[in-house]
Design a protein that fits this description.
The chain is 27% helix and 33% strand. The protein is an alpha+beta fold. The two termini are 23 Å apart.
């Protein structure tokens, strides 16, 4: 295959991945705690076989970038609705291992542990589950993450940050697995009675979708013209034989 076709096909594949990422962002405009995600394009250079000593440069779009900017904080008044102001993630205990999230909607479980809507337990600053007494009347959360019930401290909510944001990998709309290490966040603020909305910029994402679509159509047009050129060459050569 001609090298120009290799280059264009890798570009088309990357644009398709970006279109899927943009579509997923738009679909989660109203998802609490959702983090927008983008595709990272890079150059991939491969050494060609043979004695020519040449190389082939192609587009590589395998990397992903999670947008870390703050989403808007919406008041709910819920005792177990928590929002992070600043950096950091809540830590959840799941069957696949610990995961991070910015979605702060929790509720007491059957035995008093705080869980998210999927039933995964919220962990404190020491990595232990957080329990609220069933008979607690007044549950309050200080800005430093200290959770109290009827004036008695129960736990300190833990906030965590990956050493490298590139280590974050989506597990579902609002949960992330971390390939590397996570470190505690000490200077963030946790607000009670608020939830953080999605940080997706709808106008920017729709504009990007149009750009990607046009770029993909241009690449598709080039492939069709190149295919016709090759077919014409083969027809000409075949007629001369």
């Amino acid at each position: 295959m001609d090298s120009s076709l290799y280059v264009t096909l890798t570009r088309q594949s990357g644009l398709m991945r970006e279109m899927q990422s943009v579509a997923n962002n738009i679909a989660n405009l109203s998802t609490t705690g959702f983090r927008a995600e983008g595709v990272i394009f890079a150059e991939y250079v491969a050494q060609l076989e043979g004695t020519s000593g040449g190389s082939l440069s192609m587009a590589n779009a395998s990397g992903r970038l999670v947008q870390m900017r703050q989403g808007e904080l919406d008041p709910t008044g819920g005792n177990f609705d928590f929002a992070i102001e600043g950096e950091g993630f809540f830590l959840l205990q799941t069957p696949e291992g610990d995961s991070l999230t910015r979605a702060g909607s929790f509720m007491p479980g059957a035995t008093g542990e705080l869980v998210n809507p999927d039933g995964y337990m919220l962990l404190d600053a020491g990595g232990a589950p957080i329990f609220v007494p069933p008979d607690a009347q007044n549950v309050s959360l200080a800005r430093d993450g200290t959770l109290s019930a009827d004036g008695r401290p129960l736990a300190l909510l833990g906030l965590w940050q990956p050493a490298d944001p590139g280590d974050l990998a989506h597990r579902d709309g609002v949960r992330f697995a971390v390939a590397g290490e996570v470190a505690p966040v000490l200077d963030a603020t946790i607000l009670q009675g608020f939830l953080e909305s999605s940080n997706v910029d709808p106008v920017g994402q729709i504009a990007r979708m149009i750009e990607v679509q046009r770029a993909y159509e241009m690449g598709q047009g080039f492939l069709e013209r190149e295919d016709e050129r090759v077919r014409g060459f083969l027809r000409t050569v075949g007629a001369q034989v």
